[in-house]
Every structure is written in C-alpha cells, then in structure tokens.
C-alpha cells in the first residue's frame, strides 16, 4: 500500500510545476492535458479554453512522487488542513529551500532551531500549499 499527495492547483498547475522544479529540484514526470484525454471531451464544469490545462501530472521530489492537476480550473487553489513535510540533510539546505518556498508566500512559523531539529519552519508557498521544512530530527 502507498499514500501519495495529489494537489489540485485550480488552473495554475503549469506554474506550480515550474516553481517546484526551480525551488525544490522537482523532476517532472507524466503530464496529460485535458485536450489529450483519450476518453473524449473534457468533464462538465470546466471553463471554455481549458483544453491546455493539466488533467494529471506527476513530479518527483527526492524519493516521493507528488501528483498534481488543474482540477476545475477556477483560478483559486485552496489547500486547508494539510501540510507537506520536507526533511533535508543540512541547515543550509533547510534555510535555502524555506526562503525559496516563502517567495510570494506566507511564513507561518519562521525557520529556526527547535528541540527536535536544528532547523524547522512552516511556510505556505505562493499557491497556498503548506510546507513543514526541517532537518533530519535529532534523537
């Protein structure tokens, strides 16, 4: 059994893929646009001109595959009640990645030393995805 995050960017998926490639080194994988759906026309409820929007995409961040979509292409992604946890090996990487994710986003907890890690912070990126960025926990 495997659990994978599936994020819906409501029309901003291409922008998100480029952002995560630049900030996290995400490696793009499968990408299917609504116009390429082999089962026929786009689902009801999508705005006109949504054919070039992303129906399904995948990207690899480290050892994890994250799935993404434009969903219903409404232009206002909403991410609530969840956070992606990103664990890195060193303080410099944690600081760099946190700052990159915070660009255009909102810091929820500044990155700093905690009792469980030498660096830890929480940031919502420019799309509203919450990230908990930290170093490998100390034991």
From TrEMBL:
<dbReference type="InterPro" id="IPR029068">
    <property type="entry name" value="Glyas_Bleomycin-R_OHBP_Dase"/>
</dbReference>
<dbReference type="InterPro" id="IPR004360">
    <property type="entry name" value="Glyas_Fos-R_dOase_dom"/>
</dbReference>
<dbReference type="InterPro" id="IPR028973">
    <property type="entry name" value="PhnB-like"/>
</dbReference>
<dbReference type="Pfam" id="PF00903">
    <property type="entry name" value="Glyoxalase"/>
</dbReference>
<feature type="region of interest" description="Disordered">
    <location>
        <begin position="34"/>
        <end position="54"/>
    </location>
</feature>
<feature type="domain" description="Glyoxalase/fosfomycin resistance/dioxygenase">
    <location>
        <begin position="5"/>
        <end position="133"/>
    </location>
</feature>
<protein>
    <recommendedName>
        <fullName>Glyoxalase/fosfomycin resistance/dioxygenase domain-containing protein</fullName>
    </recommendedName>
</protein>
């Amino acid at each position: 059994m495997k659990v994978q995050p599936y994020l819906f960017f409501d029309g901003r998926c291409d922008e998100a893929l480029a952002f995560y490639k630049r900030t996290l080194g995400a490696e793009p994988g499968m990408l299917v646009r609504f116009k390429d759906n082999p089962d026929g026309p786009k689902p009801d409820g999508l705005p006109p001109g949504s054919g070039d929007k992303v129906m399904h995409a995948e990207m690899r961040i480290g050892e994890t595959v994250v799935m993404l979509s434009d969903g219903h292409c409404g232009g206002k992604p909403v991410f609530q009640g969840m956070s992606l946890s990103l664990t890195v090996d060193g303080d410099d990487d944690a600081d760099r990645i946190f700052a990159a994710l915070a660009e255009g986003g909102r810091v929820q907890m500044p990155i700093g030393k905690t009792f469980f890690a030498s660096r830890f912070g929480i940031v919502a990126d420019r799309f509203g995805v919450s990230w908990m960025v930290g170093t490998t926990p100390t034991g």
